[in-house]
Design brief:
Blueprint: H1 2-5, H2 12-25, H3 31-38, E1 43-48, H4 54-69, E2 73-78, H5 83-95, E3 100-104, H6 110-119, E4 123-126, E5 137-141, H7 143-156, E6 162-167, H8 172-187, E7 197-200, H9 204-214, E8 223-226, H10 229-241, E9 251-255, H11 259-263, E10 269-272, H12 275-290, E11 299-302, E12 305-307, H13 315-318
Parallel strand pairs: 1-2, 1-3, 3-4, 4-5, 5-11, 6-7, 6-8, 8-9, 9-10
Antiparallel strand pairs: 10-12
Helix pairs in contact: 4-12, 5-6, 7-8, 9-10
Length: about 325
């Protein structure tokens, strides 16, 4: 029984019998005593840039469910994109004797990973990849391939004038999605036009500004890939303000499946990150490192799925020139 209670895998049949006995007896684990014996607190820290990031909170919700099934609890700390706050969070985690840390960041700071190393806290990074950290695991969406496939789907519908809106250079995901966009165009020998590549903050205002700039160019595109859901909200606001009809005048594909993407008219075609798969992979990685079942770090890319809705039209149905 003690192995299962202390988080050590046992045979499934034994696990079922132990759980039944625990429920019948009303057994409660003495966390302090267990920590002394196993040298594990059965807690993990979750460090994230911003609680407003809906993708992060979706993954974290999945992670917490999986951790609960393994007998772990989580402590959450928001860095607000501050290195000082990130270090403060790690010091808090260290004082709480966490067994490991999930670090959610689209611009992973090497100083944070160095601090994890100094504090001897195993870490898994979600949404970024950094070289030169062989003792850290990374998991994120297959961003470049996702953008590549989204642009290919537009090309297959006859579009050749395709613009992209993405985040600033500090965001790993923004750079990867831009790389996928460029690779897709180049695969069809279509040049990347500078005036159709727009970068700004990963937020509503950034998307709004990008569309305003895009609509100001003399030669407008027929299709647009938006690489962030908040930017997509701002982009839709700007398109509505300028009376640009989607998809008749401009076909649109956005990243991420969130409620408003299905609520706006027309409903947006979206590239969806698979939060459940990312959470599962991240938890497996961290638990394996906590249990010292692995030493070498790895980087895992999780595929996306594209959901077709009404915001994209084939070019021959638009009446626009290619």
């Amino acid at each position: 029984m003690s192995k299962h209670i202390n988080g050590i895998p046992v045979k499934e049949a034994n696990r079922v019998r132990i759980d039944a006995a625990i429920a019948e007896l009303g057994y409660q684990v003495n966390a302090a005593a267990r920590a002394l014996k196993t040298r594990r607190s059965m807690t993990v820290g979750i460090l994230l840039d911003s609680l407003s990031n809906l993708f992060y909170t979706s993954v974290i919700s999945e992670i917490e469910e999986l951790l609960m099934g393994e007998g772990y609890t989580a402590i959450l700390f928001e860095t607000k994109d501050s290195l000082a706050r990130a270090k403060q969070g790690l010091e808090l985690f260290s004082a709480k004797s966490v067994d490991g840390v999930f670090y959610f960041s689209s611009h992973c700071l090497p100083e944070v990973l160095s601090e994890c190393r100094r504090l001897e806290i195993p870490a898994v990074v979600v949404d970024s990849i950094l070289p030169d950290y062989p003792d850290v695991d990374f998991v994120m969406t297959e961003n470049a391939q996702a953008a590549f496939c989204a642009v290919q789907s537009l090309l297959d519908k006859g579009h050749r004038k395709i613009a992209v809106i993405t985040g600033s250079e500090i965001h790993f995901s923004a750079n990867e999605r831009l790389r996928g966009y460029c690779n897709a165009l180049q695969s069809r020998d279509i040049p990347v036009r500078e005036e159709w590549v727009l970068r700004d903050d990963y937020n509503l205002d950034g998307g709004f500004r990008c569309v305003k700039r895009l609509l100001g160019v003399p030669d407008r595109p027929t299709a647009l890939l938006i690489c962030n859901y908040f930017m997509a909200m701002g982009a839709v606001m700007a398109l509505n303000e300028e009376n640009v009809r989607v998809p008749e005048e401009l076909s649109v594909i956005s990243f991420d499946e969130i409620a408003w993407a299905k609520a706006v008219k027309p409903r947006l075609t979206t590239v969806n990150q698979q939060s459940g798969l990312i959470a599962g992979q991240a938890v497996r990685m961290l638990l394996a490192r906590i249990r010292r079942e692995k030493q070498e770090g790895q980087a895992v890319l999780v595929p996306t799925c594209q959901v077709e809705r009404e915001s994209v039209l084939p070019i021959h149905e638009k009446g626009a020139q290619t």
